[in-house]
Structure prediction request, 426 residues.
Amino acid sequence: MKSSRIPKFYKLSVKERLDKVVEYAGLDENEKRLLSNLGNLDIKIADVMIENVIGGMTYPFAIATNFLINGKDYLVPMVIEESSVVAAASNAARVMRRDGGIKSIATDSIMIGQIQLVDVDNPYYVKQVILEHKNEILKIANEQDPILVKLGGGAKDLEVRVLDTRVGHMVITHLHVDVKDAMGANAVNTMTEAVAPYIEEWTGGRVYLRIITNLADKRLVRTRVKVYAEDIGGEEVVDGIVAASAFAEADPYRAATHNKGIMNGIIAVALATGQDHRALEAGAHSYAAKDGKYTSLSRWEKTDDGNLVGTMEMPMAVGIIGGAVKVHPIARIALKILSINSAKELAEVMGAVGLAQNFAALRALATEGIQRGHMKLHARNLAVMAGAKGELIDKVASIMIKEGRIRFDRAKELVEELSKSRNMPE
Ligand code: MEV
Prediction:
């Protein structure tokens, strides 16, 4: 019997670990070679980014075009495994260039750290005690990160909440920290850990958790756009998109997919720029449920002149310093392509991409359906897999679409037939 218990696995070199896994899983030479290819990431960097590294996995890096945001043009890097997303974003952005493009404004980069205090009999009294120490708490927090403070950031405010839980009252201190150009988890977590013993001392309670919240509701991006009916197939399309939006606003089942469409764009940019995309997902979905019922993050409405306007408000905790942004060379190149100067600007771009992506999905759903576009790409993929090259790819794909037979066996037949007829003397 094979055992997954491998003592000191973490102490082995990348190569030694890979050898162990190759043997364990019976990988062949080709599989081993593929896995050990780190592409554009240095093995030394990979080995310190996470633990137990044995290789790499490359995703495509693409560019969405046409984005005009706050009057500035952007080429938007996207990394994603799903076809159609990049094309959809580019197409949406093309009809969003009028009137100066998409407007997107991010708030200051305020993240919240939580300190959980338990074993308190008189939580409201304790709450007041903590609030009375506000200046000291902010001072202790700020001593942890003089550089951030020098840049104008740092702990700025405090909030204290009493929670009634199934294991009794808890007093939760929220530390509001302006993290400037960082995502902020490190800075905030360090601060909450430093403050915690003092809170215990002043209150006699006991602190357990000291950690950032991903419900970053003080670090929001607000995005809006106007799309002209004449650019998207007329008022009927506008009505369809408005109805789709109303559906998502009213129904959590639909809202989940509606918001997934928004995150298709946001996460693709997050991956390209080395962001903590799990934090972004957590922030988005918790914000969508902040009023007690999960709903859509965006709204689409019809104006009195028959056009379409879209708005979106959501947390956007992104950074341009620290974390993977700092160590992954491709993330740095992505930021260079974006020509971004601050985390706030990156948040604004990502909000715009999310809203554009959402529009593209709703437009397709409200008209021809999502499958046609997907099928086009799927057909091209099959053609390539079947050996088509150059012009033949589109030829094979379009025949399969016309026939309504988008299958690998048909792609192979067509490649053979068409290659033969091409090679025939005139
Ligand atoms: C697919 O990745 C995303 C969509 O399902 C989004 C939506 O339904 O709005 C098309």
Notes: The longest helix spans residues 343-366. Residues 82 and 264 are 9 Å apart (CA to CA). The longest strand covers residues 154-165. The pocket of (R)-mevalonate is lined by residues 82, 257-258, 260-261, 264, 361-362, 365, 370 (CB under 6 Å).
